[in-house]
Amino acid sequence: MIFKEALRSLKNSRSKAIFFALTFFITTALLFVYFNMAEAAGTEGEVYVSDNNLADIIQLLSKGNISNLMMVFVVIMCSIDLFFANDFFVKNKAKELAVRLICGATYIQLTMYLLIQTVILLLVSIPLGILTGFGLLHVFNMILAAGNTGMVIGISSFAMVEFISIMVFVVFVITLLNCSFAYKSGAVLLAGGNIGAMKKSGGYGFTNTKFFQLILNLIGIAAAVLPIAGFFRSSGGLAVMAIIACVGLDRTVTNVLIPAMNRYVRKTGTKSTKETAVTGFLRRDIQFSKITIYLVLIDLIVLLSMLSGRENNAVEELMIVFTFISISIMQWMTVMFRLETDLSSRKKEYDILGQIGTDESTRTKIMHSEIFRFYLFAGILTVIYLGTALIASHTAQAPLLAAAAVIPLIAVAVTTDLYYRSVLKG
Amino acid sequence: MDTEVILKTVNLKKVYNPESMNAVTALHDVNVEVHKGEFLGVMGPSGSGKSTFINMISTMDYPTDGRVYINNKNVMNMTANEIGHFRYENLGFIFQDFNLLDTHTMFENIAMPMTLAKVKPEVIEKRVNEIAERLNIKQLLNKIPPECSGGQRQRAAICRALINDPGLIVADEPTGALDSENSEELMELFEKMNRENGSTIVMVTHDSFVASFTSRLIFIKDGQISQEITRDGMDQDTYFRKIVEISSSSRTRRKTA
Question: Which domains, from first to last, does chain B contain?
Answer without folding.
Answer: 5-252 (3.40.50.300)
